[in-house]
Amino acid sequence: MARHQLLSIIVVAAVALVTGFLVAGQVKAQLLTPSNQVARYQALVRSVQDLEATNGDFRRQIAAIRAQINALETEAAGRSAATQALQNQVADLRAHAGLTAMHGPGVQIKLVNGVPGPDTGGQAGYLVNFQDVQDLVNLLFAQGAEGIAVNGRRITPLTAYSGSAGQVVIDQGPPLSSPITVTAVGDRNRMLAALDDSAALPDIRARQVQFQLRLTFFGSPDLPLPAYDSSLQITHVSTN
Amino acid sequence: MSVRTRTTPRRRAPGRAISIWLIALLVALVATVQIRSQAEVERTLVGIDTTSLAFLIDDLHRANDSLQAEAADLQRRQAALRSGTSGAADQELSDEANRLRAIEGLVPVHGPGVVIVIDAAGVKALDLQDALNNLSAGGAEAIAVNDRRVVAGVAIEQASAGVAIDGVVVAPPWTITTIGDANRIAEVADLMTKALRADRRVRQATYRVEADVVIQSVVSERPFVYALSS
């Protein structure tokens, strides 16, 4: 009897003790703070998702209006030789600005995140970052690329890269992340030779060894590039 | 005696059992909430922190504003073309040609901007590429380095004699001339020059804002050899 009672008391005491520790631990760990953190984080994520959806809507709208403008210009060019000559000039300029879909021989490169490891650079070196994409695009242009797209996002003369922690933002976003596919149309042999050169892309090559970052590529006789679908506004530059 | 001692615990048992169950329930509840909270934090915080998300939101707002402005401008051009007159079409096409020539670096341009001077030894092509990208991301719409026009697509490479732009070695000091949103570019230039001055290779890194910067240099036109319009 006394043993039974003693046992019960011990069980209750033990449970109470565990509860006490848990409650104390909980208070120390600030149970409410993680919950609020999650709520705040989720609100931020929802904002990003909403803004990305709006971004996509604007892109579709821009692409559609540009197609309608092209049709209207073609219609006007059919009525006047001078307008036709102007339209031809603009078509060539648009092609060079990346505003026209194109295709041709080229290379396709895939960049994939590596695996986390000891990092001395202060950055997550195993993640593909915007400088990797910038370096790759610069190399391809230097080696005869006539047009480039990154994950279907066309590079233009005004293109700029930014981002953080594995996020690659090109022009007006939205951010891209691994795997990153870079497609370039141009001198396929020169571009392949440059990609094969072990001295090219030193930072990526070092991280291939350190973090197993993956860089693969192949040449193709015909690769498609989409038209640029974002803003190409210059509001501060004057030509006269 | 034995009966009493047996019956007493039996009478107390329901109350004690309820207490134990309540405590156990509380333990389970607290533990579950705690574990789920932590798991949720870990699951959603993978890859990107809240500060980066806040920056991302800021960037997306600016990007969407820019896209909206582009859409509005395109709608205006579309309306002008719909007016149906040949003169309107010619005007729109001429304006578009001029704008694209400026974007592609084919004509001299001017406007408000920032001029940055960097004198350094041992800086590489990658350093210059990073600097120019920062300025482009910071609102530069036209850029030249030592009177050589730079747009995306112009090769900046490391040559044995130094950094070459479009095949021509450009020796320091570099004068980087930019045209665009002078306030935004100045912020970038300020951060950049501060960082550069902390670099032992750099002898000088300064910038100045100007109301009207002129860029006379142009990029030569390159007809496509391989690419075909779809």
* Average predicted confidence as pLDDT of chain B: 86
Helix run count of chain A: 6
Mean pLDDT score of chain A: 89
Strand order of the largest sheet of chain B: 3-2-7-1-8
End-to-end separation of chain B in angstroms reads 102 Å
Helix-strand category of chain B: alpha+beta
Encode the helix/strand succession of chain A as letters: HHHEHEEEEEHHE
- The overall number of domains of chain A is 2
Corresponding CATH superfamily of the largest domain in chain A? Protein of unknown function DUF881
Keywords:
heterodimer, A: 240 residues, alpha+beta, Alpha-Beta Plaits, 2 domains, five-stranded antiparallel β-sheet, two-stranded antiparallel sheet, 6 helices, 7 strands, B: 230 residues, three-stranded antiparallel β-sheet, 5 helices, 9 strands, 53% helix, 23% strand, extended, disordered N terminus
Task: Write a compact overview of the structure shown.
With 240 residues, chain A is an alpha+beta fold.
Question: Could you walk me through the main structural features you see in this protein, from its secondary elements to its overall organization?
Answer:
Chain A is α+β, with helices and mostly antiparallel strands and 240 residues long. Chain A has 2 domains: 32-93; 101-225, Alpha-Beta Plaits (2-Layer Sandwich), CATH 3.30.70. Chain A has helices at residues 2-29, 32-77, 81-97, 130-142, 188-196, 202-211; strands spanning 102-112, 145-150, 153-154, 161-162, 169-170, 180-186, 214-225. In chain A, strand 4 (161-162) and strand 5 (169-170) form a beta hairpin. In chain A, helix 2 (32-77) packs antiparallel against helix 3. The model of chain A has no long low-confidence stretch (mean pLDDT 89). The model of chain B is unreliable at 1-10 and 40-45 (pLDDT under 50). Chain B is of the alpha+beta class and 230 residues long. Chain B is 53% helix and 23% strand. Chain B contains 5 helices and 9 strands; from the N terminus they run αααβαββββββαββ. Among the domains of chain B are: 50-103; 110-215, Alpha-Beta Plaits (2-Layer Sandwich). In chain B, the strands form 2 sheets. A 5-stranded antiparallel β-sheet of chain B has the order 3-2-7-1-8, covered by helices on one side. At the A-B interface, helix 1, helix 2, helix 3, strand 1 and helix 4 of A face helix 1, helix 2, helix 3, strand 1 and helix 4 of B.
